[in-house]
């Protein structure tokens, strides 16, 4: 009788090969496909992106009377560096960056603005936004340049491309130094009502240096500046109305009525929250806050940051019903419109 062992071995080998060969074929097929795909990745050209490049800002330099061009984010850094103290909280600096970037984007999107010299987008003065380049900041800051510029630059880059919009348009991102505890409705300082510039509480400002300040003016100078005569009267004038932000709206002096803004500008006061008292031949005027009071308070923003709020909280507190948007989206739309 023949042994069945060789038969069993042959059967086992046949069964094994039946499973192994298809597996090897599948493995080879996968490897070959992977090689082909990898080769296609290398050989196929990269798709062009539609990302809008960072725009340049042409700045008219008031001292040299020349136009200098800077990338948008470098320009914003040069604005934040001089418009807000570098030792402020980072979140406050970020909020300031959004306001500064929004402001200049408005100018970049305008095509018929005659308020700046030909070839420029904006000036470097308080008429628009104060700006200094790196060399000027080195001179201004001296040995503190490195840490200050790094801090401001990082705050700007952390918000790169972000602007403030209302109904898909950049807002008028006004700001000022210090409130009296409240900001102002736009129409109560300027002429036009702006829906996102409404009076809000800003209690953090009371900790600002020189929150209250005094100024003495000789009676004769006071009379000349305002074109009034108060003679020997002890009472200087009567405040007849106040704004929503608890500042002087109107005041009557002798037979004339002035707005709080007129008094501030004619007497060069720090704000429109003022009171006065006559002391012999001079008038002592006490003011609270510093600036026009419309929009974002810088010391208020810093106070919010110290209390743990981030830059989004800050801008949404001072600007009503606004959104944080990407500037590139607006540049995209303008390119599409102009093409």
From TrEMBL:
Domain of life: Bacteria
Example GO BP: sporulation resulting in formation of a cellular spore
Xref: InterPro entries: Bact_Sporulation_Assoc, SpoIID/LytB, SpoIID/LytB_N, Spore_II_D_firmicutes
Residue stretches spanning the membrane: 7-28
Coiled coil: none
Record keywords: Membrane, Transmembrane, Transmembrane helix
GO CC, any one term: outer membrane-bounded periplasmic space
PANTHER family registered for this protein in UniProt: AMIDASE ENHANCER, N-ACETYLMURAMOYL-L-ALANINE AMIDASE-RELATED
NCBIfam families for the chain: SpoIID_LytB (TIGR02669), spore_II_D (TIGR02870)
Protein name (database record): Stage II sporulation protein D
Lineage, highest ranks first: Bacteria, Bacillati, Bacillota, Bacilli, Bacillales
């Amino acid at each position: 009788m023949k042994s069945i062992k060789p038969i069993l071995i042959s059967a086992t080998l046949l069964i094994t090969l039946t499973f192994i060969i298809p597996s090897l074929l599948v493995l080879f097929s996968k490897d070959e496909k992977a090689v082909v795909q990898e080769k296609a990745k290398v050989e196929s050209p990269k798709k062009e992106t539609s990302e809008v490049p960072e725009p340049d800002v042409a700045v008219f330099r008031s001292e040299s009377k020349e136009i200098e061009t800077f990338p948008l984010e470098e320009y914003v850094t040069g604005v934040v560096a001089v418009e807000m103290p570098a030792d402020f909280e980072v979140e406050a600096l970020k909020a300031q960056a959004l306001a500064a970037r929004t402001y200049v984007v408005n100018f970049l999107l305008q095509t018929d603005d005659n308020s700046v010299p030909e070839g420029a987008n904006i000036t470097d003065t308080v008429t628009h936004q104060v700006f200094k380049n790196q060399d000027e900041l080195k001179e201004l800051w001296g040995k503190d340049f490195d840490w200050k510029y790094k801090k401001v630059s990082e705050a700007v880059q952390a918000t790169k491309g972000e602007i403030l919009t209302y109904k898909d348009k950049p807002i008028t991102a006004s700001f000022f130094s210090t409130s009296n505890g409240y900001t102002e409705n736009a129409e109560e300082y300027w002429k036009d009502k702006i829906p996102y510039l409404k009076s809000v509480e800003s209690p953090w400002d009371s900790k600002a240096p020189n929150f209250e300040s005094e100024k003495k003016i000789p009676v004769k100078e006071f009379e000349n500046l305002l074109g009034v005569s108060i003679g020997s009267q002890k009472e200087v004038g009567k405040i007849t109305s106040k704004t929503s932000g608890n500042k002087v709206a109107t005041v009557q002096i002798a037979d004339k009525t002035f707005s709080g803004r007129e008094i501030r500008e004619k007497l060069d006061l720090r704000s429109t929250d003022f009171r006065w008292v006559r002391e012999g031949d001079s008038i002592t005027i006490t003011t609270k806050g510093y600036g026009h009071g419309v929009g974002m308070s810088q010391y208020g923003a810093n106070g919010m940051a110290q209390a743990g709020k981030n830059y989004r909280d800050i801008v949404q507190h001072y600007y009503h019903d606004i959104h944080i948007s990407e500037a590139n989206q607006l540049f995209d739309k303008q390119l599409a419109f102009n093409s």
